């Protein structure tokens, strides 16, 4: 049987009506991979929810399929967002699928075409303004309030509805809820969505317990941990470089209600976890994703676990989203040798001496 | 129920024994997305098998999981390949998972670190030789013949075994075999593997008919179409830039036995299909993948179809694998305007005038 996508699979939990188009790029249905090596090292039963294998390479597809389907249901022919990354890629892909216009507003400082190329190849029209990101979002809100254009940034309430399906999948894949759900926190919509999903599954009797929600901000953008917005957030994990999270309150509520916590990790810890995930488990995720794994290492050091807990780390996006960080992280250039069997064998021996 | 990966799912069709480690990164189980807009345009029932959503971003994971599992079963602790692209990424990921050494040999001309970074972040050790790709492969063959190191290039017979599972999935997802299977042809292992898979499913009674296999080489690398090796193959579709396909004979046999054909498409046709898939269906695939869709367009122009055929195009890798082509393909830079609602609305109107 062909997988039918999120709207069909979870329609009883979603605002899907007779008039909602059954839009899908076969988002969701992403792997839950057991972290065999790290489970052993940490004394946990550790899994990765690998959201990088959504169609556009990040978890944003879950919320976007719902938001775009509802936009069409409500008669919209144009969607709009302020975003330089994963949100714009997801918006553009679903707009392409339905033949909608997709307008992406970005600040005109440091346009990284690589980050935008994905949205543009899907056909998004990109407009750069002489102002910062907050101003771009403000203009998007003004325009979409007055014109028949649908806002698909995270303030669109359907985004959270779609995103909560990831919690359903985790439970369906495990056969129960995990003990702990570890997740990166940037705009804080994803932790809010997972918690909503777990609670709904629990209310329906699909799971008998709820996980503790542990969220991790990057140190340079830890608004929630500090209790105040960060004016100039900075972190290598660009997908969570957010100084004033839109879903701040619901994220705090998720942590409190679940007896979890919002904590933080440093860029160094993020990059270390980023390399560890790839080199020890064979999973390549974008730096922001590694915040969840870095966080689990931090909790382990702090004695948080009693041992054996079932822990799911959400890996929010694919490592291929940020090739420059990968290139910077590998450190060594290839070893160059002559084209002989002997020279290559000598090089292998040398590398083994270096701990190959 | 959690998906268990290819070795477990299709073990009765694979060389899996009691001693084969059940290695998995949850490769396979990739989307079969109906091409809603192109089906209508072309008068076909057209689907994309989106192999870019395998864990390392290409179909190579299917063959590699089998090859690496067998390497371990046979006592190997080191694997080796000559590759600058998808093969090395897949080899490195599975080696990381099992704690094996992975040695990648490349020619020292024009090393594109971006292409290699993925393998390196998974922990592969890369050695560049003063010689070309053919010489690198030759050295890999010499070394693996003499030392306890397993060759995982496509001459490793387990690769085809793993890759044939994609044909099983297509049939499982459709509930039958398609009428036509369109696929890019580079080294020609993939068309050989699909045909093997379809025949095995047919022999077991899982499907009642077999598809016509239509394969497409890039014009600048069309060795099979020309009937002779191409000394200096050249095409924008780097993943099929191969002048002397390793699986030449089995590819020709697949086309002949299935009443299909090996044909070719130009770089222009490939890039056009590459943009069409993204902008009209919301699917981002690497340029080589687009050869299958470009080929279907070509066959349509040539009157090959009677109409309504069920056609599956294999999209072999994710578009994020080759960000530079995406940047080159988008053409336009973002439009820069002042930070006012009026200026942005004027820009939108202008873009709509340009056919937004």
UniProtKB/TrEMBL annotation, chains A, B:
Keywords: Amino-acid biosynthesis, Lyase, Pyridoxal phosphate, Threonine biosynthesis
Keyword hit for Amino-acid biosynthesis: yes
Pathway membership: Amino-acid biosynthesis; L-threonine biosynthesis; L-threonine from L-aspartate: step 5/5
Cofactor(s) the record lists: pyridoxal 5'-phosphate
Enzyme Commission code: 4.2.3.1
Residues that bind pyridoxal 5'-phosphate: 86, 186-190, 316
Lyase found in the keyword field: yes
Top-level EC class as recorded in UniProt: lyase
UniProt GO molecular function: L-serine ammonia-lyase activity; pyridoxal phosphate binding; threonine deaminase activity; threonine synthase activity
Ranges annotated as spanning the membrane: none
One GO term (biological process): isoleucine biosynthetic process
One family name in Pfam for this protein: PALP
Domain Tryptophan synthase beta chain-like PALP: 24-317
UniProt record similarity statement: Belongs to the threonine synthase family.
Family matches, as PANTHER family: L-THREONINE DEHYDRATASE CATABOLIC TDCB (PTHR48078:SF6), THREONINE DEHYDRATASE, MITOCHONDRIAL-RELATED (PTHR48078)
Descriptive protein name: Threonine synthase
